[in-house]
Specification:
Elements lengths: L2 E7 L7 H9 L4 E6 L8 H9 L5 E4 L2 H4 L3 H13 L3 E4 L4 E2 L3 H34 L14 H9 L4 H8 L3 H11 L1
Helix pairs in contact: 6-7, 7-8
Amino acid sequence: MAIIGYARVSTEEQNLDAQLEQLQGADCAKIYQEKASGVKEDRPELAAMLDYAREGDTVVVCKLDRIARSTKHLLSIVEGLEKRGVAFKVLNINLDTSTPTGKLLLSMLAAIGQFEREMMLERQREGIRQAKKAGVYTGRKPTAQAKAAEVMELLGQGVTKEAVAKQLGIGVASVYRIVKAAK
């Protein structure tokens, strides 16, 4: 039963010292550390730490945003740990998923995160509806399909599909779709 720490800062210029000190104070036997953006989900040290953790271990971070930037990513990590019998602890908010209160707090954070996301999407839909009503928002402009006649003309002149795509600034797949639709 090991206590495993994870520390992260976003840039090379930032310093891990404060986090390392807190994790050592929390009796972490092993501490994984890296300098990488929290937005990236494919962080090598995070992956190594998650792989290393075993049943009965506890993963400790100083703050929630050190391990994950989104609620979805956080819940994915914690769910994976729980399935393997690994507890999760956040020092600055005293969250510990090995306790009923910690599990409740994490569930509440997840629910709030989901609520925030749904509210943002609702505001976005309302904004789009208002913009359409005002005639400001017309949606994405058609690109390749608007150039279908030019595509067919160039192909008729013997130009390759790749050259047509490059010349018209569209994707090769779009050229193939236009040809298929013309048949």
